[in-house]
């Protein structure tokens, strides 16, 4: 596909990136359509030929660069591993991205608001994005797909063999495709390294990042030095002095109600003893003859 041009040849740095991201490791099974892209079969996985992956990547980049309006290229990923890469690819190449669930009828139902008529479709996983591929076959839209050794290739026009089970491999493939599209459009030069890092296309787990940040904060709090005592403020309000028998934290406010009389203090004004009057014998005249 490269035509033997030195500028389109696979360089050593790209090979190192693909090997580090495990893009060459396929699935344990292999379909007969993908046998041409397998370099070696092992018991646990199939080894994909990296040179053929690069050739199909250049072919896909040529097709994408040939579209006059970049917005007519629709990139789709319903899997979480490829949604960030799809959005980054769309932002750098000015294409249309559909990240998340694909609404049925997007390419066939003209009534719904999300109706689109793209000229080219690029999907991350043919098995997960089967609805979009099926609808593209109804309206004659060519499809480019990243395929593993066991992926279905029905209605797929250009299959890019790579490992689509690894989040790093998916992000790297989208990054390399975006770089080649920009190079063929003339936006960036081949002799100059692209200033966008491949890490921006990789999937990030928000839960793990939150746990890592929380653990870092706890570790930082444990290792933080003790703070000195605060300086005395000359303009602060004076402290209330302590009173004997009263707590220093709270003082009883002055009451606005009239003082209550103490009935137990002075007794009666005449000094009479109520208990003395009650000392009589109430049972003294109990022998009175009421019948006399």
Tell me what you see in this structure.
The protein is α/β, with parallel strands linked by helices. Helices cover 32% and strands 10% of the residues. The protein is built from 8 helices and 7 strands; from the N terminus they run αββαβαββαββαααα. It has a 5-stranded parallel beta sheet, sandwiched between helices. Helix 2 packs across helix 5. The mean pLDDT is 79.
Structure summarized in a few sentences:
This protein is α/β, with parallel strands linked by helices and 292 residues long.
Q: What gap, in angstroms, lies between the N and C termini?
A: 147 Å
Q: Order of strands across the biggest sheet?
A: 4-3-5-6-7
Helix content: 25-40%
Secondary-structure element string? HEEHEHEEHEEHHHH
């Amino acid at each position: 596909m490269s035509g033997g041009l030195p500028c389109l040849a696979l360089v050593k740095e790209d090979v190192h990136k693909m090997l580090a991201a495990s893009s060459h490791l396929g699935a344990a099974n292999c379909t007969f359509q993908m046998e041409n892209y397998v370099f070696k079969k092992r018991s646990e996985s199939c080894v994909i030929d990296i040179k053929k992956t690069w050739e199909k990547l250049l072919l896909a980049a040529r097709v994408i660069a040939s579209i006059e309006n970049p917005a007519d290229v629709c990139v789709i990923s319903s899997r979480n591993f490829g949604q960030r890469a799809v959005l980054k690819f769309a932002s750098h190449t000015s294409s249309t991205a559909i990240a998340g669930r694909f609404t049925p009828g997007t390419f066939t139902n003209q009534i719904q608001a999300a109706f689109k008529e793209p000229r080219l479709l690029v999907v991350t996983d043919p098995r997960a994005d089967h609805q979009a591929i099926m609808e593209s076959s109804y309206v004659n839209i060519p499809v480019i797909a990243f395929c593993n050794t066991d992926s279905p290739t029905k209605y797929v026009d250009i299959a890019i063999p790579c490992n689509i089970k690894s989040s790093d491999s998916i992000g790297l493939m989208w990054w390399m495709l975006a770089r080649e599209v920009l190079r063929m459009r003339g936006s960036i030069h081949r002799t100059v390294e692209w200033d966008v890092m491949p890490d921006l296309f990789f999937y990030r787990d928000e839960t793990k990042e939150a746990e890592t940040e929380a653990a870092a904060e706890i570790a930082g709090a444990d290792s933080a030095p003790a703070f000195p005592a605060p300086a005395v403020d000359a303009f602060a309000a004076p402290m209330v002095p302590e009173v004997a028998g009263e707590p220093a934290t709270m003082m009883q406010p002055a009451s606005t109600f009239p003082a209550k009389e103490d009935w137990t203090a002075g007794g009666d004004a005449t000094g009479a003893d109520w208990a003395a009057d009650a000392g009589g014998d109430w049972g003294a005249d109990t022998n009175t003859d009421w019948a006399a």
